Amino acid sequence: MLACCKVRRAAELAMATLVISHLLVQLIKRTVGRGRPSKAGGLSAAIREPDRFSFPSGHATASLAVALSYAVVFPLWGGPLLLLALLVGFSRIRLGVHYPSDVLVGQLIAMGTAGGVLAAL
């Protein structure tokens, strides 16, 4: 945030998008209360689950929110950043801590929040 110009703009967009999307994710998680895949059957997560709620994925939301924010300011970084964010979402499914719909909805929240933040500025 202390940097100049484009870096500062990207950081401000990322912070606003991340904060707003995180609040939405937590509100939805606590309202829906969907359990994690490991609780639904004989599955086990490959990592420690951050909490007991699965829907939507906070990691998928956060990674795409930050990637989109930086991609808007630095378009050449867009491809690699978006690929990295998609890989984060895939990893959440592969690790057994989220259903595919958790990741998809988290990514949709990130896109909507990023669009809203950009429209507001």
Question: How does this structure look, described?
Answer:
This protein is mostly helical. It has one domain (12-35, 54-120): Phosphatidic acid phosphatase type 2/haloperoxidase (Vanadium-containing Chloroperoxidase, domain 1, Up-down Bundle), CATH 1.20.144.10. Helices cover 71% and strands 0% of the residues. It contains five helices and no strands. The protein has helices spanning 5-32, 37-40, 58-73, 78-94, 100-120. Helix 3 runs parallel beside helix 5. The longest helix has 28 residues, at 5-32. The mean pLDDT is 88.
Count of distinct strands: 0
Q: Report helical residue fraction.
A: over 70%
CATH class call: Mainly Alpha
Contiguous low-pLDDT stretches (5 residues minimum) are none
- Quickly count the domains: 1
Shape descriptor reads elongated
Briefly characterize the structure.
The chain is mostly helical.
Overview features:
Vanadium-containing Chloroperoxidase, domain 1; mainly alpha; 121 residues; single chain; 0% strand
Topology:
Elements (H helix, E strand, L loop, with lengths): L4 H28 L4 H4 L17 H16 L4 H17 L5 H21 L1
Helix pairs in contact: 1-3, 1-5, 3-4, 3-5, 4-5
